[in-house]
Each structure stands twice: as C-alpha cells, then as structure tokens.
Amino acid sequence: MRKGFLSYIFAVALIALGIILILENIGIAAFNAKETWLVIYPTLFVLLGIKWMIDRIRHKGGSWVFGSFFFIFGSLLLLDRFDVIQFVFKDIFKLWPLLIVYFGFMFINSNRSGNVIIHTSDGKSKKKYYNNGSYFTVGSHEYNEPNWKVEPMNLSNLAGDFYLDFTKAYIPEKEIPINIKALAGDVHLLIPENLEFRIYASVKAGDIDVIGQSVDGINRTLSYETERYEEAERKLDLNITLKAGSIRVDYV
C-alpha cells in the first residue's frame, strides 16, 4: 500500500508539472518552472509525512519518527517559499535537535507500564500488564512466571531483550504463532524437548543459534523445523526479526 501511495503522489507531481509547462509554453499562463518545482517537492514531503503518521495510527506500518520529520521538514520549506521564514534544503542539519525530542519520547514510553494488546488468532485481543509493546519503546520482555499461558502474540521494541521460558508455561493443544521484532536486542528462548516448533529467524547484523545450528555476520537468516512439527497438535510457530543482536533457542 505504501508503494501504491508513493507512486500516486509521484504521478500527481508529474501531471501537475506537465500541465504547468504546457500552459507556460502556449502562453496561457506564465510560470517559472524552477520556482514551481521548489513548491512541489516540499508538498510531497508533507504528504509523505502525513501518510506515514496515519499508517502508524492505523497500525499499518508507517513511522512516527520519519513521518513527523518529513512533515516538519516539508512544512518549513513551504514556509520559506511563501516568505514566512528563511529555510532552505541545506538547513536540514538545523533540525538535529529533533533527535533529542525523539529520544525523550522514547524514554517516556520505556518507563511507562500499561496494557499491551496481544492479538490472537481468533481476531480478539487480550490486554496484558507489561511494558508498552510499541516499536518506539525500550525495555525487556520476560515471560518466566510459573504456569504462564502461551497465546498468539506480537512483541516489538526499539531496543531491549526478550526472554521466554516455555518450560514454565502452560501451552494449549494448538499451533501458536509468536512474532518478535526489534531494532536492537537479544532474544533467548527456552523450549522443552517434547515441544514441537518451527522458527524463521533473521538478523541484519548479529548471530543466530537454534538448537546448536548457528550463523553469524551480516544479513543472516536461519529456518528450523522439528521432525514431527506438521503432525503435532501442540506446537509453536516462531518468527523473529532483529536489525542488530542475537537470537538463541535452547532445549531444556
């Protein structure tokens, strides 16, 4: 969907530019093509930023960081074009304090506990008291309480560790998908030897070790499936993605 939106605004920009050039060439209107482009591309930045923020609100991807940055950057460029302020493209470096703002919000979220929404396979959702599950937070996820119930879940963090001890868990007789995603951190899973599972693990930079099978380096992936996974009633379907860090799965 994001690709379609980008193609759409690019097409609109080309159409608008073409119409402007035609009107100028046939003498109906006088435009300065360079000045017109200086208004068009900041507008595209603003639209792109709004799109990313809306996608984030609707939980369809997107990014608060990049969305707000492009919105602010494009808006400042437009204000310059209409002589409200002075701000040109090379002034982008003046926006570096936004990094401080972003990290400030990040640490506010990391210190805030609350209800994490865990989406289940039947379309319902369950609230769990824990650190905020947003991709824009820092903190650790630990599931190691006695008899904790394993349910389908999506866990994500900007940075932090994930520790799931399935040897202490109550695991229903069904296939249970678990997705873990983070920019940086370590993932450690303890799995009882009588539990069937399959895993797709991916790291941009780091290492993966699944029951003795290991890879390390840049852009590494590892897929593993236990021998009786397909026929088992009780099993885990694991999908783990890290930008940087380590993924480790051990039998206990």
TrEMBL record:
Keywords: Membrane, Transmembrane, Transmembrane helix. It comes from the Bacteria. The keyword Transmembrane helix applies. The keyword Iron does not apply. Residues 9-112 form the LiaF transmembrane domain. Residues 138-249 form the Cell wall-active antibiotics response LiaF-like C-terminal domain. One of its GO terms (cellular component) is membrane. The chain crosses the membrane at residues 7-31, 37-54, 61-79, 99-118. This is Lia operon protein LiaF. It comes from Ornithinibacillus halophilus. The lineage of its organism: Bacteria, Bacillati, Bacillota, Bacilli, Bacillales.
